[in-house]
Amino acid sequence: MAALTVFRRRRRAYFGKNAHRPTQNCDGEQAVEEGFKVVERPSTEPQSTRRAPRLPLVVDVEVTNLKSGIQIKERTRDLSLFGCGVIATSLHFSAGTEVTLKLAYGGTEIVAFGRVIYARPDIGMGVAFTFIGPDDQKLLEAWLAD
């Protein structure tokens, strides 16, 4: 603790009494003054890790566990080129489960393989596609373009 106090005293002696006081920059974001140099603090907002945006497209989906054969018939709450969110049900698969998905929309059907990324009873399951055929990929792109 004493070393921190010594550091603060030396910093104040070098930069003056207003060193490291928060100020507002022209964009209204927090910044820290270090002598004459202004350094912006990193944003605290979480960055999306998704490769493509998920659109709120509701389609019928049948999710089948590849090992046990258990099926869940439900609807998606959102859909993207790389995965989907399945509406919460009393039954869900745990994260890491390998599944097949049959998605039906507008009289057409897509079959894909996927892996459950997360599963929570309050928000449902997030499934990332691991394989989708080229024809099904084109159909998925058409669904998302509408």
What does this structure look like?
The longest helix is centred in the first third of the chain and has 14 residues, at 2-15. The protein is 18% helix and 42% strand. The chain contains 2 helices and 9 strands; from the N terminus they run H-E-E-E-E-E-E-E-E-E-H. It folds into 2 domains: 2-40, no CATH class; 60-145, Beta Barrel (Thrombin, subunit H), CATH 2.40.10. By secondary structure, it is an alpha+beta fold. The chain is elongated. The strands form 2 sheets. A 6-stranded antiparallel barrel has the order 4-5-6-9-8-7. Strands 1-2-3 form a 3-stranded antiparallel sheet, with no helix packed on it.
Main beta sheet: 6 strands, antiparallel, barrel
Spatial gap, N to C terminus? 61 Å
**H-E order:** HEEEEEEEEEH
Strand percent estimate: 35-45%
Number of helices: 2
Question: What integer value in Å does the Rg equal?
Answer: 25 Å
Task: Tell me which CATH architecture of the largest domain applies here.
Answer: Beta Barrel
Mean model confidence by pLDDT = 77
Q: Would you give the CATH topology of the largest domain? A: Thrombin, subunit H
Overall structural class, as computed from helix and strand content, comes to alpha+beta
Helix content: 10-25%
Q: Write down how many β-strands occur, each being a DSSP E stretch of 2 or more residues.
A: 9
What do we call the CATH homologous superfamily of the largest domain?
A: predicted glycosyltransferase like domains
Shape: elongated
Q: Which stretches are poorly predicted, pLDDT < 50 over at least 5 residues?
A: 21-39
Q: State the name of the first-level CATH class of the largest domain.
A: Mainly Beta
Query: How many domains make up the coordinates?
Result: 2
